[in-house]
Design brief:
The protein is an alpha+beta fold. Helices cover 37% and strands 16% of the residues. The strands form 5 sheets. It has a 6-stranded mixed sheet with strand order 12-16-11-15-13-14, sandwiched between helices. Strands 1-10-9-8 form a 4-stranded mixed sheet, covered by helices on one side. A 4-stranded antiparallel sheet has the order 4-5-7-6. The longest helix is centred in the N-terminal third of the chain and has 20 residues, at 2-21.
């Protein structure tokens, strides 16, 4: 239903665009269709696609009719001179394409194709048409002041999970696809380096047709060889590298090929919506083969103007420093009329309070270009109170707070100790008293379609409703362990916390007395985020409090990173063959209800094993001045919005056309 609503909203915008812009050949007044003719066109189209009562994908005729009539009605209301037959055809076909498969391809793929086709029709008018459909008239020029919360230990976005690395490097690159800068769900796909794409009837082959005339910032020509090199680097990581999307890629893809300079072909393991969607995630930017091929592991570790060559809307104007990245507009950008900005100044401010103050004093125009859990409710409220021109937004993000336990070390290798820790933590209380709120949940996003039913969640270790019962159970588990293996010296262990993230310090300080209440008197170890994450990757830690951002709602992605053996975020280093088998089974299960049950069993197994604890999914606050346009906050930390090519400043002194 959410997909249908998104499509309806989008088609309303399309109708407004038809009326507002009219294209190069405005509609003559006498060419509009009558209400009767419009209804006849709708009836004919709906009947042709639901002759058996439903579409191949199971959508009923009434459901299709409802969507089509709503879309056409909204367009007609916005067009006082009426709609032409061609305009009605565009709107009707776009709506039906989202609900009716042209072949026996799964509905999820068809829905994505329908949105893509409709969106491409909108984009035919260029980026200003996309802006106009969303009520904006962009201005050109100006320097954008932005900020980020993290020091940058590497310049290779695909070899780290740190969001700060992504936001600093994102403006330099493009991907095959992107998502609309106006879509709060970061789901509506738009072309990027790929102008168009087709999916075979069996859903196993995706062919991307690449844009022509694209050059890297150093003048070298872009081709499908660059795409092939980048995607193979993720699918088959070179020795010594850690590719954080390797698990998802190996699940989704068999191989890639580049039959000619302008074509890139994907061979998928199975039909899946995610096989297209994954290329619209900013994490999978296309990198230059001629820069990386000599040293694919280390070429991007140290960011410089010479190493960080992209095709993106912006290029580095100076070598980055520890605290600042400077960018200038790519004057040879392959997309006409983009970007709108002339310059970007990215300052790294790793203190949450200073960063909030920087927004108030306009030393940065927003919190960051992607959602981070670095603004408390109190800070957000203070900014809201300080100025009516500061826009505060929030949403339950795709980022969860986690407590990882290093199962390669005693006593965390024993399930009794791990379960005792999980039972002792009152997740709901943490969210209530902390200024960094979250939505309590398991490894399945609490607002997604896969969420574990409440009655099943309440039976999990660490999720029971009675904290006194849980604390007593924790004490019993610890007593049983110590009777078996001896007393635990908790003073020699530590819970590491990231000083760069307010939530990490805050949660550590709240959780510590909860653990003490059951006999776990563990000290806190305050250190920087790079050390925390590095220790998690190596396994050289005891307990760790940090966050983990996912790129998609789909459990293939989340569990493939967190819990599957050798996953990209397998920080607990705990292998569960039964869980691996469930993950493989759900990944190929075509029946939605059967797959959901497999996913729930997988979730229950992971939570009860208690090696990687989910504290909750962050409700992330974002703040920006209202003169910042062409950007929408999303739940996804790696939304392509961080590339900033559509961002513009609504300063009256700036022109509405490129000088």
């Amino acid at each position: 239903m959410r997909k249908i609503l998104l499509l309806t909203v989008f088609l309303i915008a399309l109708g407004m665009l038809v009326n507002a812009c009219g294209g190069d050949d405005p509609m003559p007044a006498g060419s509009s269709m009558s209400a009767e003719d419009i209804q006849a066109a709708i009836d004919s189209a709906v009947a042709g696609t639901t002759a058996s009562g439903t579409t191949v994908s199971g959508t009923t005729a009434d459901e299709v009719r409802s969507i089509v009539e709503a879309a056409v009605g909204a367009a007609a209301a916005a067009a006082p001179e009426g709609l032409t037959a061609a305009q009605v055809q565009t709107i009707v076909s776009g709506a039906i394409a989202a609900n009716t498969p042209p072949t026996a391809v799964p509905k999820a793929i068809v829905q994505q194709l329908g949105v893509n086709e409709a969106h491409q029709q909108l984009l035919a008018g260029g980026p200003t048409a996309l802006a106009a459909a969303n009520g904006e008239t962009p201005r050109y020029g100006g320097k954008f002041l932005t900020a980020g919360p993290e020091l940058i230990p590497t310049g290779d976005m695909q070899q780290t999970s740190l969001g700060g690395v992504y936001t600093t490097t994102a403006p330099l690159y493009n991907g095959l696809l992107a998502t609309s800068p106006y879509d709060p769900g970061a789901e509506l796909i738009i072309p990027d380096l790929a102008n168009s794409w087709e999916i075979s009837e069996d859903g196993l082959t995706i062919t991307f047709n690449l844009a022509g005339g694209v050059r890297w910032h150093d003048g070298a020509p872009f081709s499908s060889d660059d795409v092939l090199f980048t995607m193979n680097r993720i699918l088959n990581p070179p020795e010594g590298s850690v590719m954080f999307s390797n698990g998802s890629f190996n699940t989704l893809f068999e191989s890639f090929e580049a039959p000619d300079a302008n074509t890139f072909v994907v061979h998928a393991t199975k039909p899946a919506k995610l096989a297209v969607q994954i290329f619209a995630n900013g994490f999978h930017a296309v990198l230059p083969k001629h820069i990386l091929e000599l040293d694919p592991v280390n070429a991007l570790v140290t960011p410089t103007m010479a190493s960080h060559i992209g095709t993106g809307a912006f290029r580095l104007s100076e070598d980055p420093t520890i605290t600042q990245w400077l960018y200038e507009r790519n004057t040879d950008y392959f997309k006409s009329n983009l970007p709108y900005l002339d310059e970007i100044e990215y300052n790294i401010i790793d203190d949450d309070g200073l960063r909030a103050n920087a927004i108030l004093t306009r030393r940065t125009y927003w919190l960051d270009s992607a959602p981070h859990a670095n603004m408390s409710d109190d800070q957000a409220q203070a900014l809201r109170d300080a100025s009516d021109d500061i826009v505060i937004s929030n949403a339950t993000s795709l980022t969860a707070a986690t407590v990882s336990l290093s199962t390669t070390r005693e006593p965390f290798d024993d399930i009794r100790v791990r379960q005792a820790i999980s039972e002792a933590i009152d997740r709901a209380f943490v969210s209530t008293v902390s200024s960094n709120r979250n939505t309590v949940g398991t490894a399945l996003h609490p607002l997604g379609s896969w969420v574990l039913p409440p009655e099943r969640q309440a039976k999990l270790i660490g999720y029971g409703p009675d904290m006194e019962v849980r604390r007593e159970h924790a004490r019993e588990l610890l007593a049983d362990y110590e009777a078996d293996k001896g007393e635990i010296d908790w003073g020699s262990k530590s819970l590491q916390c990231s000083v760069n993230h307010d939530f990490s310090v805050d949660y550590c300080q709240i959780v510590q007395p909860m653990l003490e209440a059951v006999g776990i008197d563990i000290p806190l170890e305050m250190t920087d985020v790079g050390t925390v994450r590095g220790n998690e990757i190596s396994g050289e830690y005891d307990m760790s409090m940090l966050g983990a951002a996912m790129n998609f709602y789909d459990p293939t992605s989340t569990f493939g990173a967190w819990y599957i053996t050798d996953g990209s975020r397998w920080y607990q280093h705990r292998s569960l063959p039964e869980l691996d088998d469930l993950w493989s089974a759900q990944d190929v299960e075509s029946d939605l209800e059967k797959r959901r049950e497999l996913v729930w069993e997988m979730d229950e197994l992971a939570m009860n094993d208690a090696a990687s604890l989910i504290m909750g999914w962050f409700i992330i606050n974002h703040a920006k001045w209202d003169f910042v346009k062409g950007w929408t906050a999303t739940p996804d930390i790696r939304s392509t919005n961080a590339r900033m090519e559509y961002v513009w400043l609504d300063f009256p002194q700036l022109p509405t056309s490129r000088p």
